[in-house]
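Exercise 3.2. Students should predict the tertiary structure of the chain below and write it as structure tokens, then compare their answer with the key that follows.

Predict this chain's 3D structure.
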Amino acid sequence: MRNPVPALVMSDGQRAALEVLSKSGTASHREVQRAQVLLLAGDGLANEWIARTVGVAPGTAAAWRARFAEEGLAKLGKVRSGRGRKPSIPQSKIDEIVDLTRNSTPEGHTHWSVRTMAEVSGISPAQVQRIWAARGLKPHLVETFKLSNDPQFEEKLIDVVGLYMNPPEQAIVLCMDEKSSIQALDRTQPSLPMKKGRAETMTHDYKRNGVTTLFAALDVATGTVIGSCLPKHRHNEFLTFLKKIDSEVPTALDVHLILDNYATHKHANIKTWLAKHPRFHLHFTPTSSSWLNLVERWFRELTEKALRRGTFHCVPELIAAIESYLAAHNNAPKPLIWTATAESILEKVARGRVALQTSTKTGTDH
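Answer key:
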């Protein structure tokens, strides 16, 4: 052990500040270490012993001691110019990668991957990934969309959103749709159960054992669902379902049905029935706007939780599974809260139209 160097000279105020910093739970680990080193240096201990105790290199302890002796606490937390890790990728190279990602594709491919970009740009895949992550670029992902061309888009949107956000009194608002051609699928081989280290398995091929159509109407206020499985989805079946709704909804309430523009919903026989039941009011979503109908969310949950992994030897088994899920859902329903205003949706659609027109024009120019 070398002889101790002279104790680092510091005032009582400086020592008090360093003691607080050395025990801090919010300062960075490096700042805490620096304070501990300086306090031990103030006690006259050798740099080697201090470094081993605090967990830093002896050269680091010596440098911190020398800097404190020269500058005190005033510049302790500042990084000197020229210090620190130098950028490994020039900004020009980063700009080039971002431009290639946004405005081009590799030959023979539909999109860039970290490896194809790394080959072209001459940097590592990990560096490409960091550049993309910092700028929110995800060329491996694609989102689907479709802007409605319905000439009455704004009118229908305002009508439906108005029902969600300000439902009429003495009325029930139901989101209604059909989930058609639900297949009773039977796997060609038995599934293997889940066990430690292995998920449940099932064959990718199957046998078709018939189909059914689920008519469903979701009560926006309570989350409960009126449902019925019928063989087809013609206007006759739709009329049967309307009668079911009529029988289950208290007669004192008006019924506001939100549904799509399927021709079945506008059949002459349906209009005749509606004329005799004036408490029913139909509200049609814009074309290509299924996202506006809340029952679609329930259909998605039904598929994920009760149908996708199911095995059904016949249609009655399929219907029984659907009815079982429907009953379980209605035992503990949750109301759906719509928060997007019609104005915010219209603004978003307007931006989408501008972006689409710009993209189309740019593509035409090229």
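Discussion points: Residues 342-365 form the longest helix (24 residues). The CA atoms of residues 144 and 291 lie 12 Å apart.
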